[in-house]
Amino acid sequence: MYQQITLIGNLGSDPEMRYTPSGVPVTNFSLAINRRWTNQEGQPQEKTHWFRITTWRRQAEIANQYLAKGRRVMVVGEFESARPYTDRDGNPRVAIDITARDIRFLEPRESDANNHASEAAVAEAETGNGDIPF
């Protein structure tokens, strides 16, 4: 059996990296996916879906180093679980956990806007000339 999910959104938090007891790096971050539409009355509507992304090993180290809250990324991965919870306002919600296999920058960091360093790093990774795997 094979499954894959592709998400494009913005980081809702800075990545958090930790290590397993055996020393394997793992990084987690939240990803917000905004859905916009116009209702039957012509009013704009918006809903945000949140995903909890987990990435491992070298990709975890790179995600922790280069990603930050607000960055727009594409995540390709596998659905792991959906966990119900209640938000601060008492509303029922679902946390959706995804294990990332591939993460791509979709825009440079603000500090890189002038020198396009992130774009160059992504181009190197895509052509196999760099060590950044996304």
Please explain how this structure is put together.
By secondary structure, the protein is of the alpha+beta class. It has one domain (5-127): Beta Barrel (OB fold (Dihydrolipoamide Acetyltransferase, E2P)), CATH 2.40.50. 16% of the residues lie in helices and 50% in strands. The chain has 2 helices and 6 strands; from the N terminus they run ββββαββα. The chain has helices at residues 57-66, 117-127, and strands spanning 5-11, 16-19, 25-38, 44-56, 72-86, 92-105. It has a 5-stranded mixed beta barrel with strand order 1-3-4-6-5. Strand 2 and strand 3 (25-38) form a beta hairpin. The longest helix has 11 residues, at 117-127. Residues 113-134 have low confidence and may be disordered.
Q: Can you lay out the helices and strands and say which pair or pack?
A:
Layout: E1 5-11, E2 16-19, E3 25-38, E4 44-56, H1 57-66, E5 72-86, E6 92-105, H2 117-127
Parallel strand pairs: 4-6
Antiparallel strand pairs: 1-3, 1-5, 2-3, 3-4, 5-6
List keywords for this structure.
134 residues; five-stranded mixed barrel; 2 helices; 6 strands; disordered C terminus
**Biggest sheet statistics:** 5 strands, mixed, barrel
Please identify which CATH superfamily we are dealing with. Answer: Nucleic acid-binding proteins
Secondary structure class reads alpha+beta
Shape: globular
| Low-confidence residue ranges | 113-134
Domains, number: 1
Q: What is the highest CATH level, the class?
A: Mainly Beta
What's the rounded overall pLDDT mean?
A: 82
Summarize the structure.
With about 130 residues, the chain is α+β, with helices and mostly antiparallel strands. About 15% of the residues lie in helices and about 50% in strands. The chain has a single domain (about 5-125), classed as OB fold (Dihydrolipoamide Acetyltransferase, E2P), CATH 2.40.50.140.
